[in-house]
Design a protein that fits this description.
Order of helices and strands: EHEHEHEHHHEHEHEHEHEHEHEEHHH
Strand content: 15-25%
Number of helices: 15
Number of strands: 12
Shape: globular
Strand order of the largest sheet: 2-1-3-4-5-6
Radius of gyration: 21 Å
CATH class of the largest domain: Alpha Beta
Length: 369
């Protein structure tokens, strides 16, 4: 069997799709599946309005040369639509992986949509987000299989008109992480106070504003507390201004994008990891935080409860519930025993989410189409 992977991101670019695509490229051949990859960056020099067309013709050319049995797109829009059309024209089987609702993200970020991802599915929308929603649904319906990383996201995709028999849940995997002892890393970083860490794009639904306000409350009783935010995005200046207004600009560190190895070390050095997100298909960063042994506070949304069990291997709260978030962080900061119990359970739980299991399940889906 031969599979052509169409991906929007690929190393050295960062992000989950890049890591996932590289893993498939490297690991599927050992399962009897020859692979080739076409990254979207090959057309980034083309004028924006022509990029999708250019990528489509690149896909056609690669398809004629590589002769795949399956074209496997890693998203339903940037590469998904060109891949679906190329598969139709060349009579190849088409599979797509969907890790989130991109149309909802863009409607929220660019067009002022204020509803949840659930309400978005049948909402009245302006032309552009409505077009995006229509395209991702068209692409998903064209696929023989839609691979999703959580049962929650499978339920969302089913609302797009995709039959449940075409939806396959394959959880993301993570390699076993050995990043060193916490105190050694803190010594190398010359850090002596208490540390909260959060990782994600600086966009409204990641809930960083509420986390900054909670940090300001916690600083009143823990003056040595710092908040490290790793990630970049359009709301960075807004969040920096909020930190100033809350009087904590000196203790909130905006690190920007940081490479994965350094991020894992910062996580290991931290006392608490917080992901106050309003929406998550299945969070890879929660897997990483679990693997390095930092106790987690996150939200009961999306695929998060499929990994985190409240008060067992983390805490689950409502998004932007600042009172509960404050209480959960305080409990972890004040109790080494609770931190150790939560982190230990998390490391045991994450062992079930291995790279080998993810690749094996993906290969099984592809071979049985």
């Amino acid at each position: 069997m031969r599979v052509l992977i169409a991906t929007g991101l690929f190393p050295p670019e960062g992000g989950g799709p890049a890591t996932y695509s590289k893993t498939l490229l490297d690991e599927l051949p050992s399962r009897g599946i020859a692979t080739s990859v076409l990254p979207y960056r090959e057309v980034r020099s083309v004028p924006k309005i022509l990029r999708h067309s250019a990528y489509f013709f690149r896909l056609l050319s690669r398809t004629f040369r590589f002769k795949p049995d399956i074209i496997f797109a890693q998203d339903p829009l940037s590469v998904g639509l060109p891949a679906a059309l190329a598969a139709f024209i060349t009579r190849k089987k088409f599979v797509v992986k969907i890790v989130g609702d991109y149309a909802w993200e863009q409607a929220t970020q660019r067009f002022g949509y204020g509803g949840t991802i659930e309400s978005f599915q049948d909402a009245q929308l302006p032309f552009v987000p409505n077009l995006m929603r229509g395209i991702e649904r068209f692409v998903a319906r064209r696929a023989l299989k839609v691979i999703v990383p959580s049962k929650y996201l499978g339920r969302i995709v089913a609302q797009w008109g995709v039959h449940k028999k075409h939806i396959e849940v394959v959880y993301n995997g993570i390699e076993s992480e050995t990043v060193g002892l916490k105190q050694v890393i803190r010594g190398l970083l010359r850090y002596k106070g208490k540390l909260i860490i959060s990782v994600g794009r600086l966009v409204p639904w990641k809930g960083f504003a509420a986390l900054i306000r909670v940090h300001a409350i916690l600083r009143k009783t823990s003056p040595d507390l710092s908040l490290l935010i790793i990630g970049a995005g359009p709301h960075e200046s807004t969040l920096e201004k909020l930190a100033e207004e809350c009087g904590v600009a000196d203790s909130v560190i905006f690190a920007g994008n940081v490479d994965r190895a350094a991020t894992l070390r910062y996580m290991r050095a931290a006392d608490v990891f917080v992901l106050n997100t309003h929406y998550e298909g299945f969070s890879h960063v929660l897997l990483e935080a679990s693997a390095v042994g930092v106790p987690i506070v996150t939200t009961r949304v999306g695929g998060n409860p499929e990994l985190i069990e409240d008060n067992v291997n983390g805490y689950l709260i409502k998004p932007d519930d600042e009172a509960t978030l404050t209480h959960r962080i305080e409990k972890l900061l004040s109790s080494p025993e609770t931190r150790a119990r939560i982190a230990g359970n998390a490391k045991k739980r994450v062992e079930k989410f291995s790279i080998a299991a993810m690749v094996e399940e993906t290969a099984h889906v592809l071979k049985n189409i």
